[in-house]
Amino acid sequence: MSRRLTAFALLFALALAAFAGRLWDLQGVHGAEYAQTARRSIAWTETVPAARGRLLDRKGRVLAEDRAVWTLRVSPRAGEETLARLRALCPDWDGEGDVASVSPALLAEIRGEGLEGVTFLPAPQRRDSGALAPHLLGRVGKMSPAEWAVYREKGYALDALVGKDGAEAAFEDLLHGVPGQKVLETDRAGAVTRETDSLLPQPGTDVTLTLDRDLQRAARSALADYLDAHPAAGGGAAAVLDVADGGVLALVSLPDYDPGQVSARYDDLAADPAHPLLNRAIQGLYAPGSVFKLVTAAAALEEGVIEPDTEILDTGKYTYYKSPQPQCWLYRQERKTHGLETVDRALADSCNVFFYDAGRRVGIDALDRYARALGLGEKTGIELAGEETGVVAGPDYAEEAGLPWYEGSVLSAAIGQENHRFTPLQLAHLTATLVGDGTRWRVHLLQEGDGPYVPEALGNLTLAPENLAAIKKGMGEVTREGALSAAFADLPVDAGAKTGSAQVAGAREANGVLVAFAPLEKPEVALAIVVEQGGSGAALGGIAADILRAWARGR
To answer: In terms of pTM, does the model score above 0.70?
Structure first.
């Protein structure tokens, strides 16, 4: 026992001696030196913002990225000589606080002068694609109190910038990096004497979108040119989809806005009667007009109500019911009829009487079922916030909305009137599903983030080959010899299309609606265009042709 106590006492004595020696070194030998350093150094920790990941188009081209913007932090203890020099170099600086957004040339000059009390702080600033796709790409900004309540739980700093809308918000979790930290030491004049990275920032993940930058630019230009030439038109939208998997190739909504000015001009933009903040492609609800005849044709064919070679006589006025007795547009305008029509000719001629009869035979329940199976009245699944569901007309909706529904209401529903209301993206989705392999793919913007996007099927409606062939034949005839033949004459690829016009209460002109796809035999791309008070759908043929021409170039 005594040996153990002796050993323990010896170890204790040695430790005490070592401690005393270290204390003497700190206080006796280097005490004055350390005291001087402590008097002249002030240390603090700063957060180093992480760069957001880039937004890229499907070909890897940059749509949005961070660039470094420098701020000069001026110490309150900075001398008058430093302040005077900064005033001379930075005429817009009021002499107080930091100097923001310093240009690279000025940054280099100030660094070279070694001004005491000045610290150089980098911060990322988002550089976007401007007017290319503001509704789709979105913007970044400071958090609102409601956003802070959410992001605080994810470890965000209070002053962190976040995606406010569009793809920037949809893919925030991928794009947002992890901030770092650094320790700064300065002397009493504020000059940095030491800078140490205690935690390096981790940049966000690059996100590749399905968007094709060139096709987006072409679609926006074509729609903008049309609106400029038709000042009575209120606005419009275009949606272009990859038939193979539902990827968004282009998505345009006009009028739009400068994303860099939204925060400063938000109240003015929100009050603008042209509604530039509204993403018409996913939030605008429009009657489809005769485009809905595609649904009626599919339902009647698949339910066996008609065959591809079934002929229905256009009598000009449909008299099955005592009331209503609606007319074909040709009879109403010219007092002529289309005569005997098969489904492909009826689509090419947009014969109302044919589809009144087909719709009545198949019934409103089947019409609604096929409409939903083709993506109407259902969300497409796109990652952007605020997508509208749309409305499929029928007795259920009429009851819900407190509106009347009559047996004869099926006639107007069959040609796209009544209460049908869909977004342009839904109409493109309808077209892609109909002419593709029957799979209704979830519409998506993401191509690759932390891994490649895996296509997701939302449903399936595979038409019998002969039925699909009849519908595609009719849509092909629209572009070859029908209303769009002139606009589509020089396209480098065969295409199919269907036009529609939808009257709007109180408006002088109808909304123009058009859907199209290409190539005709093996469809790869589908699109929809809507122009408010744009007149007939046929008038939009030039827009569709320009989009398909651009798609063919980049194919």
So the answer is: yes
